[in-house]
Design goal:
By secondary structure, this protein is of the alpha+beta class. About 20% of the residues lie in helices and about 35% in strands. It has a 4-stranded mixed sheet, with helices on one face. Strands 2-3 form a two-stranded antiparallel sheet.
């Protein structure tokens, strides 16, 4: 698990550095002397946490005689595996899932205060949730 966390941190750091360079080029500024705050964290989801259920819906309107009886059938409940969707992330390692897997997500947020004396946050960049998936055998 530790090697997976290190790989996520490494890839997220490279992607964040690239985004910072793009912002500096776009704005024509250097954030070298700007005040920066970083927060990060991991989230791990196990396959057992990702199962959902639904109940089949089946009913009909019957126009029966007054003394007829209708037996209600039990509705079946189905379970299915719902993985975390890939489109929420900046990058995904191992995006193809053929069976339920442990999913490890890493989120890092960077706040850049270009004008430290004014108290205003001029740039706030959030690098949302990087994810690595791997199989549990």
């Amino acid at each position: 698990m530790e090697s997976i966390r290190k790989e996520l941190i490494r890839k997220a750091t490279l992607a964040l550095q690239e985004k910072i360079e793009n912002l500096q080029n776009l704005l024509g500024e250097n954030f070298g002397k700007a005040e920066k705050n970083v927060s990060d964290g991991f989230k791990v989801t196990l396959p057992t946490e990702m199962y959902r259920t639904y109940e089949a819906y089946n009913s009909s309107s019957l126009a029966l005689a007054k003394f007829s009886s209708v037996s209600q059938a039990a509705k079946s409940v189905t379970s299915y595996y719902q993985p975390v969707l890939d489109k929420e992330f900046d990058f995904v390692i191992g995006p193809v899932i053929h069976e339920p897997v442990i999913q490890v997500m890493y989120e890092i947020k960077l706040n850049i205060r270009r004008n430290p004396g004014t108290g205003k946050v001029a740039e706030q960049h959030s690098f949302e949730k990087e994810k690595k998936r791997f199989r549990l055998f």
